[in-house]
């Protein structure tokens, strides 16, 4: 860990880099809102955002957003409409990249944001899908962000809210899921990716200041590691400047978040 | 202005939302949440409600904690900027203050279920939710021939908060619409809460912006500030601090009960509530007027 | 103003509507029919088109008479104030100027078919059309389990005429919307014809009035008066006389050909067409401005 | 026939009287637009109109309308929206009365507005359903207007665009049609009605100046006649005044229309 930036700031920068210029991005709650803002203001000025509550934008407001529904996110929008209309675009395969907040993920990228334990009397009730399942099933590829802990990165999630690759590469096709599946898991320790065509997550980069042993110890399955495993690039000064401008009080990116 | 369907929030809730009713709220997602209506449901000790909505940023959690709710039909219940819904957790994990039934949806599925009801279709087929365990924890979803059939959701009442309405309930809403239109069309009746109560000429000057048929609207409640702590375009910014305070205090059942006493049970109505809020900090001051539109006909 | 996706009608039709394309037009029903685009299709001698729309007040009849059409997917084709479509009759009854295939719909079914395509649903189930012989003359309708399954209709192009658009195709339309929104969402691409071409600030000042995502819009054509003889709210009244004249002259194939020569083939573009119309009689002069709306955010 | 009014004026007045005050009326093309205007301005000031192109009104404009989409029909509307939204209300059973223009009708009220003869090579191609089939299937009751000729009032239509009572009273229930079915056929010679619960049309009133023999001769089946068969009430002066105000040039109501 560096004193230049917090783990959250590194995650936001890493998430932002998943966005390619010109893409249509389905932006979920919380950190992804900030990631889209950073991407727009740095390397992806033409990336567009869709928000499930019914907005399309081609630029991020130069303002703090606690939620996608904060008033500055409406001013300058290219379209303020119904949820079903933005979902329509995703159902048509128009969304290149979606972001989903995660609570628990497994080696095949299946996400659980619903129940830990028996759904009829769960040990922990999580908030639920929101648009997560829709993004996981319908977008061309998607990325999730979460804290890297053994209880979060597990061998097999007990409840699949937002399907990844199910039990292996062919599972999505067999079940008729139209979208492409997860592309990356950005955690507090590293970035996990999936092989072309789907399958099991592998560790692609480790965040500066962390070790492979630490990552393995914090992962609930026997983690595959990329042949070319390297460090996650640090946030640039420009990225950090934008993160701090869009989140001036560290609402999302303070070290204690 | 009075007349038409105008009444107080207490009257509207008392007349139109009986125990056991199914109620759609928070249909714009994060903005325009009718908190004032929710708080009145709590004060009137409504019981056995079914709550319908995509996500609920705080409101459903409050109603669950107050013991008003028997069933949740939603995609997400929690606190968008703070995370988990603590009352939701206590109810589902420990049955406190009572057991609730959860029917899981995704956001898109909530919308489709409301459109199915609006069009009186037996179901709507979709490919979303294929492969999700949501199919196992919602009996109103079924996979047939490779598509998910989403059965209709017909709320007894949809409660919406809009920027302006006339006394007959011709409501203008702007900003993100979420599932508001389909919730209103699907519902048997609508309660319109409005920031401004205006003359019919104002809303009829722009019939494209009228949300839904006034034939569905059973009550119009003039309730300025009724969405706090959620935002309302043109009027109020979101009160992130209030959300944080609620998350902090509701972490324990005791903390929640104190919060409830202080902000809901101990205040008679929305006006009294708003006196306790530092509102000026949240008020939108700059005006950004939409370009004029000409409906001329001759 | 130029730039963005702005081009002439001739360019838009030439680039975006090839022979054999399926084209949705007349999606507002009686108003805002993109006649200028239809006439350009005729001038460019487009062939084997599939026309999609609920009713078509005159335009589809003209395209059929000109031999541009292979297939009709519509609920109604004729002349709303005058009755039958004479070219439609000649084509279906006698194969003149060519045989066309008719897939029958009701208005609601057209809308549902477009929504099915917009949501990428395999079909939408409905109870409308139960008991109608329309089920027998449209293979894309099927009764299963007591409901009619309406299969998706995905136009290659939707052509709409709106009051105003910016050069990127952020289009504002007001008045009755018909099936315009679902046609645009269902279509692969959209051609926006506009009465006024405006700066982006104008349309972005009111994002709720933007019809559909500009990502679908492939061309913006500034074509004032492009809806004549159909009306456009705020701009033009309907030219009942022109509809009557068309009905009278198109009663025979010869009369139709003379009409076509005079009003379509013999004029190079919409500007020249409008010089032949007594437009001032039709121009809306009184302004009826919608009440202002404030999108303020801080 | 009287010199006070044309046959078309009598039809409009008779159609207007089918509208009860306070009802929600789905107004079709052509004559029904005028009938709603007359009803609103005379006996049914609180009747509401729905128009399939996406409008709801509670009053008729004081202006000539060639179509429901003429600009004066939008000014003062209570709702300007999408077709699917107004159809939603009808699908929910909210529409009390619909009007459908007819070309050919049979004894059970089935309407054909599509094909005379074989649909693959029709003798006459009619414009089609428009919203007619939707109204016939979904509204609580509906009324059609047409010229009374033997080729139009036929024993059995060759193509059912908009279903009436099919082949008898129980047919709609058996086929799952939610709406109530036809209530009346207003012709140039009289008004035909249907028995409670549906079934075969019978002659309820004859327009002044016409005889039962004339009506029977112009009907393509052996027409049942009401026990209390009487004359159709003439248009009142007030009704005629409104008809002529709303259709000043006789666009819809001249004798030669």
Describe, in short, the structure shown.
The complex is a heterotetramer, with two copies of chain A (257 residues) and two copies of chain B (298 residues). In chain A, a hairpin with a 3-residue loop joins strand 2 (48-51) and strand 3 (55-57).
Overall description:
The complex is a heterotetramer, with two copies of chain A (257 residues) and two copies of chain B (298 residues). With 257 residues, chain A is an alpha/beta fold. Chain A is built from seven helices and 15 strands. Chain A has helices at residues 7-17, 31-41, 83-91, 132-138, 171-175, 212-217, 237-246; strands at residues 24-26, 48-51, 55-57, 79-80, 97-101, 104-106, 111-112, 115-116, 124-125, 141-146, 153-154, 182-187, 190-193, 202-206, 224-231. In chain A, the strands form three sheets. Chain A has a ten-stranded mixed β-sheet, with helices on both faces. A three-stranded mixed β-sheet of chain A has the order 7-6-11, with no helix packed on it. Chain A has a two-stranded antiparallel ribbon with strand order 8-9. In chain A, strand 12 and strand 13 form a beta hairpin. The radius of gyration of chain A is 17 Å and the shape is globular. In chain B, a hairpin with a 5-residue loop joins strand 9 (157-165) and strand 10. In chain B, helix 2 (35-43) runs parallel beside helix 3 (59-65). The two termini of chain B are 32 Å apart. Chain B has helices spanning 9-16, 35-43, 59-65, 86-94, 107-118, 180-186, 200-204, 240-249, 253-265, 270-275; strands at residues 22-24, 49-57, 69-79, 83-84, 101-104, 124-126, 141-144, 147-150, 157-165, 171-172, 189-197, 217-222. Chain B has one domain (9-274): Glutaconate Coenzyme A-transferase (3-Layer(aba) Sandwich). Classes of the chains: A alpha/beta (257), B alpha/beta (298). Chains A and C meet through strand 4 and helix 3 of A and loops of C.
């Amino acid at each position: 860990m560096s004193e230049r930036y917090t783990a959250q700031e590194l995650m936001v920068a890493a998430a932002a880099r998943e966005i390619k210029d010109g893409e249509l991005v389905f932006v979920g709650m919380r950190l992804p809102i900030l990631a889209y803002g950073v991407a727009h203001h740095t390397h992806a000025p033409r990336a567009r955002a869709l928000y499930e509550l019914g907005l399309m934008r081609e630029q991020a407001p130069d303002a703090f957003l606690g939620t996608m529904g904060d008033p500055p996110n409406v001013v300058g929008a290219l379209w303020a409409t119904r949820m079903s209309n933005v979902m329509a675009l995703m159902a048509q395969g128009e969304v290149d990249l979606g972001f989903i907040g995660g609570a628990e993920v497994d080696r095949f990228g299946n996400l659980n944001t619903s129940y830990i334990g028996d759904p009829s009397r769960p040990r922990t009730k999580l908030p639920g899908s929101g648009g997560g399942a829709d993004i996981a099933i319908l977008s061309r590829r998607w990325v999730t962000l979460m804290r890297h802990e053994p209880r979060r990165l597990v061998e097999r999630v007990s409840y699949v809210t937002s399907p990844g690759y199910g039990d292996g590469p062919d599972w999505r096709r067999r079940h008729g899921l139209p979208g492409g599946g997860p592309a990356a898991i950005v955690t507090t320790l590293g970035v996990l990716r999936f092989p072309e065509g789907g399958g099991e997550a592998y560790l692609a980069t480790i965040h500066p200041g962390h070790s492979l042993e630490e990552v393995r110890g914090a992962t609930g399955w026997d983690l595959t590691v990329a042949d070319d495993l390297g460090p996650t690039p640090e946030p640039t000064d420009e990225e950090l400047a934008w993160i701090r401008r869009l989140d001036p009080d560290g609402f999302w990116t303070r070290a204690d978040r | 202005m009075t007349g038409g369907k105008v009444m107080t929030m207490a009257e509207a809730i008392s007349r139109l939302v009986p125990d056991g009713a199914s109620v759609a709220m928070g249909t714009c997602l994060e903005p325009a949440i009718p908190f004032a209506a929710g708080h009145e449901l709590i004060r009137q000790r409504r019981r056995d409600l079914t709550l319908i909505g995509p996500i609920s940023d705080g409101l459903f959690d409050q109603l669950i904690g107050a013991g008003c709710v028997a069933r949740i039909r939603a995609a997400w219940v929690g606190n968008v900027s703070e995370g988990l819904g603590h009352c939701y957790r206590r109810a589902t994990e420990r049955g406190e203050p009572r057991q609730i039934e959860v029917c899981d949806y995704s956001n898109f599925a909530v919308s489709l279920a409301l459109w199915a009801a609006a069009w009186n279709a037996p179901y709507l087929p979709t490919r979303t939710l294929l492969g999700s365990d949501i199919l196992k924890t919602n009996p109103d979803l079924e996979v047939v021939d490779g598509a998910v059939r989403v059965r209709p959701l017909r709320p007894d009442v949809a409660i919406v908060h809009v920027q302006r309405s006339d006394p007959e309930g011709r409501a203008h809403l702007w900003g993100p619409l979420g599932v508001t239109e389909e919730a209103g069309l699907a519902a048997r009746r609508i309660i319109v809460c409005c920031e401004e109560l205006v003359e019919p000429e104002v809303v009829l000057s722009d019939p494209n912006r009228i949300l839904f048929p006034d034939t569905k609207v059973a009550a119009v409640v003039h309730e300025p500030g009724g969405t706090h702590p959620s935002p309302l375009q043109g009027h109020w910014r979101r009160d992130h601090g209030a959300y944080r305070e609620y998350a902090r205090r509701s972490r324990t059942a005791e903390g929640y009960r104190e919060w409830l006493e202080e902000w809901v049970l101990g205040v008679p109505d929305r006006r009294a509530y708003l006196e306790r809020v530092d509102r000026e900090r949240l008020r939108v001051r700059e005006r950004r007027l939409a370009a004029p539109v000409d409906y001329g006909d001759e």
